[in-house]
Design brief:
With about 210 residues, the chain is mostly helical. About 45% of the residues lie in helices and about 0% in strands. It has helices at about 5-10, 10-20, 25-30, 40-60, 70-80, 85-105, 115-120, 130-135, 185-195. It is globular and about 60 Å long.
């Protein structure tokens, strides 16, 4: 369906009405970007998904409370800009909300299979929540645990043995000379020094005379 037909049908107003029910700014933006589909199977899937959401909202007060709009923060991170402590706390709060939502739909999968399938696509935080908790307090202050104590050694990789388990160093060996091409004059000179022909580079024999 072309944009002119959508304007005649006042489709943008319908999307604005839908977005007004969204409590999360990114959700409202996604609602305004919805477009009709000509795929009958996809249309039926969307209707079934909407029906599940309507039933869920009527039966519970489930929300994504604690989530923040991270788009400005993510843009800073893409530019390798330093994030402030309160921005890290916003990231933590959003990750916690997403994790709780995913766990909730794991329990409700039998009643809301389509919504549960969407929630299963939320990536796990992979320790990021704990890392921020160890670094930033709930008041936005940098904790002492954010940096190692003076003289402390950095953590060793898990696949690397500890010092007590490391094999002893190899005995010191005298470095060998670099190899030289066979046709190089230095090669012939070095070979002559290492393997002198008989009678050359040898100390002359001195006979011991006894005093009369």
């Amino acid at each position: 369906m072309d944009s002119k037909t959508l304007r005649i049908l006042e489709y943008p107003k319908i999307l604005d009405k839908l977005a007004s029910y969204a409590a999360f700014a990114p959700s409202a933006d996604l609602a305004r970007r919805l477009r009709p589909t000509s795929d009958l199977r996809e249309a039926r899937r969307r209707l079934a998904l909407t029906e599940e959401a309507r039933t869920l909202l009527a039966a519970s007060d489930l929300s994504i409370g604690g989530a923040r709009d991270l788009r400005p923060i993510l843009e800073k991170a893409r530019r390798s800009a330093m994030l402030e402590p309160h921005e890290l706390l916003d990231i933590k709060s959003t990750l916690v909300a997403a994790r709780n939502l995913a766990r909730t739909f794991e329990r409700l999968e039998s009643a809301y299979p389509l919504l549960a399938d969407l929630a299963a696509q939320i990536p796990p935080p992979l320790g990021l929540i704990d890392a921020i908790s160890r670094t930033i307090s709930e008041r936005g202050e940098v904790l002492d645990s954010a940096s190692p104590a003076p003289g402390a050694h950095p953590p060793r990789p898990a696949n690397r043995p500890r010092p007590s388990d490391e094999p002893p160093p190899a005995p010191h060996q005298r470095p060998q000379s670099d190899p030289l091409p066979a046709g190089c004059p230095r090669h012939h000179a070095r070979r002559a020094l290492r393997h002198p022909p008989p009678g050359r580079f040898q100390r002359p024999h001195q006979s011991h005379r006894t005093r009369q």
